[in-house]
Write a structure and sequence with these properties.
- This protein is of the alpha/beta class and about 70 residues long.
- The protein has a three-stranded parallel sheet with strand order 2-1-3, sandwiched between helices. A two-stranded antiparallel ribbon has the order 4-5.
- The protein contains three helices and five strands, in the order βαβαβββα.
- The two termini are about 20 Å apart.
- The protein is about 40% helix and about 25% strand.
């Protein structure tokens, strides 16, 4: 099953994507900060990440190199 991670500080956006993706048959996890997203990406393998740019603890683009270098990223 395809696993998707949604990282966005707006709970409504996370809920929308999680509900939509689950209805479409995908596994979906959500995070509201870069730190939460980083922790989830290190704990699980994700096939796709929806990543907000403006998060409370930094710019989402700063997490991209880490996502690509994670054991599951490449």
């Amino acid at each position: 099953m395809t696993k998707i991670l949604v990282i966005d500080d707006d709970p409504r956006i996370c809920l929308f994507f999680a509900s939509l993706l689950k209805d479409l048959g995908y596994s979906c996890e959500t995070a509201h900060t870069l730190g939460q997203g980083r922790d989830l990406s290190l704990a699980c393998s994700f096939d796709l990440v929806f990543l907000d740019l403006e998060l409370p603890d930094g710019n989402g683009l700063d997490l991209l190199p880490e996502l690509n270098q994670s054991p599951f990223g490449a």
